[in-house]
UniProtKB/TrEMBL annotation, chains A, B, C, D, E, F:
Record-linked InterPro entries: RraA/RraA-like, RraA/RraA-like_sf
Matches recorded under Pfam families: RraA-like (PF03737)
Stated name of the protein: Ribonuclease activity regulator RraA
Signal sequence, renumbered to the chain: none
Source organism of the structure: Duganella aceris
Length: 236, 236, 236, 236, 236, 236
């Protein structure tokens, strides 16, 4: 399956489904803790392009730091590939911003898929008004220089307590963001689509009054049969 | 007064009013800390039906745990009485979900009054779309098995730092959820309705320019008189 | 420049802009941490009128405390000058409210500019429905007496980790609230308006595809020229 | 009873005893949370002399601030009465110091009874080597100016989440520090001495094999008799 | 192997060793977070006897609650079997005590092996002076009634974030306390003794200048040979 | 001045002194928050050699990870230069260890100056028994693999909220650890020695009854004179 097909599938499934499938494979820590969507209804699927911040230092991180054309935050915004997701390691510190609406707009123009940060975002309502989705620890006005020194592009990082390696697939929805290890994205996508098909059947069953036990998971002998019939009726 | 009448009254009053009335009776810790509504405008009143989670253990809480027909979370969903509120003790850990939209839908079908959790909920926008209201520490996608082992049904628990005994009356609104000790629900309901009647008068007074001091509480001699007149005019 | 002109200018600029300008002058800690707007789209600019809470004590802070006509919370509501912002020091404790909708309504009637608290607010949806804006650590139903003893009016306080001196200028938007030291408000307002004018130019440039580096900050030789031309075209 | 006699009694009893006696009178929040002794075996009893810090501001709290002869921290050290306890409100922030060994030595020379802080102390091993005892949130080297602005002397404060009014009696031991409201100190001291006398009896009973139930509290009919006999034997 | 032999072996090995062996078997969450020893050099090994606290409620948990001969905390102290460890679930709240020195002394008299709590302990220096060891979140004077309601004896609990089932084997040292699932204690004990024997060899090697890589773990071909020779020399 | 002379001087001065001198130069964030000494009386001065951990991932960080001869933690232990300080970035997570006594012993044999971690250390009493000093967030038994993946050697990191660049000078005492930017170490060392000389004079003055104001800082005209006389008497 092509990467594009995988991403297209992943964009249709929920982070709840994905965390369950990763848990089945032994992964317990894939959900970016504390990263909330800036607005409802956003969907995201794309490879991680990472930016690491360490704590800032007064002599290195004055306002003039942004004048350096090699400043990693600005370079990241200009070099992130189309379709990629900027994932920022802010050490979970939301007392300042990790980016603002001008940079986010530039990223949207360049075709980035979205922003994920365990820090804050400034001009958050401006970013929320973009088409490109964003998840973060909350709106926060102060410039990142007050707490953060942008250091590395595309090194492995921690974000919201989760290991994120460049190229891992970030998928986001209203619940938050999950990080899928790159080598598993294809098989997880296939399984997720099938699992959600079955859950649509389950939800219909529940809505017409069927009890959970035996249905979800389908341990009762006839559940699988009814599901096959449901599939055969083309209701998926 | 019947229980139904009590619940009907409690559904019309605010948690702010209820916590004040309980404070007057010496109760300082009745507001479920950290449980926020999944959507605005929800109202809840019903007896607590509790589910206790302890930390999960890898050998007991694999994905196959849900295949056990006696799994307490699933049993709770199938046995919660109509009109009752599922209150979950997640030890305040919102890093994973305590339930998702399929179980919530089943609960709605079965007539449950609502969900209160000091942990997360997954498929949170799906749950928010139900008529049955829910309060929790926030959306969180990962399956509960990663952190939680469902253990007890209808044992006394802590939820959001508050003691909740089965049968206590849970009342929720946009501010959050209060737990009223069962034996006090009737008298609190009566007092709350009266207190809110007075507060509607107070608010009208304030809107027409009356000062707070002497009015709220009504220490000025004429406040009670004006209130009686207001009542007599049938404006409550 | 008059104070009114300063406030009018500050009401049009963002807290992101203001924190950057204060950072340039050496101020790193001016953003009220944890104070979120009760609703989207609010704007605030006004001098701080402070109320300090210390932890409550059972024998001093019973429900009857509000009967005292000198209770500082009630006095504050009646004495806050028109146009001023009530800033409350709750030691970051959001487990109870610092005010509710009746007091907030009274403040609106009296012409107060808004409420900023690092504690909770009760009847939060009622307060959100007012025209007067409010920022706080979140909705919280319990009465302030459970945790807070109102002590001082218009003493210097900490709020959300920030020093707030009476008369400092509080400016709020969707990101949160910034506290501008009083003596800097005028010059900051002027700089902020100019900075946002330049950022509108930058945003247009970005939207038409210009790269960030060299543009923002304007280190490329021609950026300033293009900006002058943009200004000359009257597009600010 | 004289104040000196009260203090002498309080210096012999434990904070465990005192918190229980205050709880019996309805006080639930009298133990300074997070204030640990700098060394084992310290005892403290004396009236509170308070110092309030608010967050520092860069333009007011440079290193030269200490050159002001009216700097409240330095004034407090020079004006604290003999026998009094310096209680500092650091908003629970232990990332910096609230005092160091030079000031502590000066306080000892002036006859102060001790130091209680919910912030840090620097040169902590130097302070621990003094005879004057100290309790704090932990050793912390940075100067208070980085986070704290000394503002008020002898105003009511919060310390470790507890209300402390000037003149309240601070009592400390290895468990920590309790704040006794001033008007209760005398009666609490008397009760505490009696309670500890009884507990010495209980401990002897337990050491010789008597069960807790019926003994502590003394609900069994003969416990009080045995205690009277124990008292008569002069073993208290 | 008898249970006594298992416990005797476990009392000689470190919690570091045990957590590694449990990790090899897939257990990641067995170390009681935040439970520190009251004094250095303590060792503990014994089966868990649990006590669960929920948040207290003012009408149920007054000082007279201890007069009830069925009060679970007091019953636990009188019924804990010799050799067992009292493990208390305080929801990680160390603002109050979970027990004090009189109860601890009674437990020692009755032959209990030790105390583990994720809450506080009062009269902590008195408890530290006992032979029976104790681990907790720190000294804390206030009576448990202020925050805790003792509810269940010997139900499964969480303690310091770890699931503890009655009969699980608690092992403690200067690092803290590990909870070994009961069915694994025997095999873990055997492996631990062997692992520590090897680590004594490793430490000697390191002390005489051997590099870590190839030695620990013993991936170099000759490490195992040298270890066998060391064993043959009887130096274990 | 040679680097060795600088380090020798820094080893004699306190972290309190150093943080004050760095604050004078505009550095507010140089004290490793939460890193406590494993035993009293330790002193440390040496250049930082850093190790960065990110969150672990189950498929990469099994127990067999240590068999890789290139595992960064093991490589760090073998390659840290004599006199250097191993500084570990554990994201402040003390729920597991960042190293244990075998690795620490190897580091001591190799001549390392010490260990600084914002995570835990296992076999902490074993490490405390070494001559090489260590500071960390506390003893913690579990293996680092449970939470940490060792990634980078000698990259800039955050430790305890402080930026640490390889080669920065780490100085530790009973209060904790300060990180001096490398280029400032020489001048800071000289100033610190002078400042502590003056403070010894101040302490003697205080001990003989001189008041703080005018003495510390020496704003009174005669303080400097008395200091010169004290120096002349050779009492420094």
């Amino acid at each position: 399956m092509s990467d594009d097909a995988t991403l297209a599938m992943l964009k249709t499934v929920s982070t709840a489904t994905l965390t369950s499938l990763l848990f089945k494979r032994g992964f317990r820590n894939v959900f970016i803790q504390g990263a909330r969507p800036l607005k409802a209804g956003q969907r995201l699927a794309g490879p991680a392009y990472t930016l690491r911040y360490i704590p800032s230092r007064e002599d290195l991180d004055g306002i003039e730091a942004f004048r350096d054309p090699r400043h990693p935050q600005r370079v990241a915004v200009e070099e992130i590939p189309p379709g990629a997701v900027l994932v920022m390691d802010c050490r979970g510190d939301a007392s300042v911003a990790s980016a603002g609406s001008i940079l986010a707009t530039r990223m949207q123009v360049r075709g980035a898929a979205g922003i994920v940060s365990d820090g804050g975002l400034r001009d958050a309502s401006g970013i929320a008004a973009l088409e490109m989705p964003a998840w973060c620890a909350g709106p926060s006005a102060p410039t990142n220089l007050i707490r953060h020194h942008a250091l590395d592009i595309n090194a492995p990082i921690g974000c919201g307590g989760v290991p994120v390696y460049p190229g891992d697939i970030m998928v986001g929805d209203d619940d938050g963001v999950v990080c899928i290890p790159a080598h598993l994205a294809g098989e997880i996508a296939v399984d997720a689509v099938e699992m959600e098909r079955f859950e649509r059947f389950v939800l219909e069953e529940v809505q017409r009054g069927v009890a959970i036990i035996g249905l979800y998971p389908p341990t009762a002998p006839d559940t699988r049969e009814r599901y096959q019939a449901w599939l055969a009726r083309g209701q998926a």
